[in-house]
Amino acid sequence: MIARQCRNLHVGWMLMWLCLAAANAGAQTVDATQWHSGTVHLSENWREHEGDDLAWSKPGIDESGWKEVALDDLGQARWGWRWYRLHIKLEPGHDYVHVLIAGGPGTYELYLNGERAEGAELKSMWGVTRPTEQVFMLPDGDDVTIALRTYAPTMYTLWHFPLFLTATVGTPGAIEDERLAMESQRLYTAIPSIAINLMLILASIGAFALHRSQRDREEYLYLGNYLLLLGVSNGLLYCAVAGLLPISISTLLADPLIYFFTIMQIEFTFSFAGQRVGRIWRAYEIALLPMSILAFLQVAGALSNQLYVSLEAMMILPAAIMLPVVLLVWYRRGNREAGWLILPSLFPAATTALFDIGTASIDVGWGHADFLANPVQLGAVPLQISDMGDFLFMLAIGVVMFFRFTRVSREQTRAAAELGAAREIQQRLVPAKLPSVKGYTIEAAYIPAQEVGGDFYQVFAQDDGAQLVVVGDVSGKGLKAAMTSTLALGALRALAQEGLGPGVVLTRLNRQMVETGDGGFITCVCARVTGNGEIILANAGHLAPYRNGEELQVSMDLPLGISANERYEERAFKLAPGDRLTLLSDGVLEARDPNGELFGFERMQAISQQSAAKIAMAAVSHGQEDDITVLTLLHVPGDSEEA
Hints:
By secondary structure, this protein is of the alpha+beta class. It has 3 domains: 27-188, Galactose-binding domain-like (Jelly Rolls), CATH 2.60.120; 191-417; 430-642, 4-Layer Sandwich (Phosphatase 2c, domain 1). It is 43% helix and 20% strand. It is built from 17 helices and 24 strands. A hairpin with a 2-residue loop joins strand 11 and strand 12. The radius of gyration is 41 Å and the shape is rod-shaped. The model is unreliable at 1-29 (pLDDT under 50).
């Protein structure tokens, strides 16, 4: 952000200016014949003229109306065209001499005795960088006129860079030594920040890996996005500060990312704490999005730098202040894990906001908070306050996420073991092969949902040749539901052998479920079937069966396991040859399409005379959400026995 774009300059080129200015003090004329350690600094006696005329590159023009300036004391670059000229006298008979110019690449052209030097060219606002070092070879001759044709675009002036830091003439070896020293000084303050942000990017990869292993944990995804955007944004900034990238990349890409990684921090915080993002926070996130275009308005001149810095600090400050507050509120309400984030959440946004305040103090001349924009020396390493916040956040959140991942992994392992056991049990809730029922063709379809449920069906033979057909659904899912289904089927098998009717079977089973139950219930339809088509049916809160496409009017008594005193009524009827009786679970009716529309009774009635497999697949195609169980009995004439 422009608010952050003066980082490292106070420690870097400001110190360099002071040292070089002290070395050049007292130079009346530029006599480059008197070497000092192989170099002569060219800071004084430059002539400046506003405007642009290529004739000003020639050696013999009249400079009497030009302003005398010191090249290392020009201050912040001003928009527009300017020329700077200097005449130097070299040692007669010199072999070759180099000149070192530390200036903004893309903001100047160099002319030596009227000839344009290769390697220095004017660029558009998109290609300029902060001042860096360039070395040029001077032409032969004792007298050389150096002319600098400069143009500072708006993008460059927003960063408060000077056009030039210094110029030095000297022997090739001495000039190369000075260039390396200045380059080291320039990179020194940026390398720690770049390294920290590379670590953030690597940490984001780790967060994405955690999400890949636990895809239902969205907080890892939001954390990965936050760390990635933060690392890229600040990394681009410091690469621009170090002169490694054009400053336009930071201004128009790194700055807008600030608002996006703030949004990701909000999403991560709420997801980590298991909370839903409320309307106020969602409105705040939406308000942050258009802020990303402010950098473009600033470059276009529609927004001042002071206003931009103030708006940026104002917009990200709520996240810096309020996220720790809401975490504290959740923690006091019993959310222990929310407390883990209180301290880490203070670091990134708060330190960025403090830096913006420091930068704004410099821009408007407050003078009391400008220290917030300067690096903090940790021994020999200079670090920006915002980098320190990001680094501390990365360390703290690494510890937090390690414990979070370990806990969730244990829970998932336990849940997976429970789910596997439940699936194994559920496979026993439905017969591997249906028995033959005299006088009927019997079909069944069972399609479990993704989670293990409690649907079951069985056909029990009774001593008098009748069959007891049962379809049921246990409330809940997982191992608990599967165990309840197993207990219910075990009791049904014992009751069926006593030759009892459906009403008595359900009544006695209900008492057992109430005595041994733990708050759950079972819906169940039980039918006693004889070979001549006679059906006796009782219903414990289950869906009514269909006969030949019509819903049977049966008693809807309470599900099993609710009231020990419930009595289950029976209804007797007879199927004619060719009649079809269809029993099903609520997974058919509750199938839901992407628009939220249920499969419903009308669709079920329309297909109730089809086979069990076709009914089940129709519900699956509509959108399965629960276990689907369908069992059909087709009464066939004669003594046929089919399965």
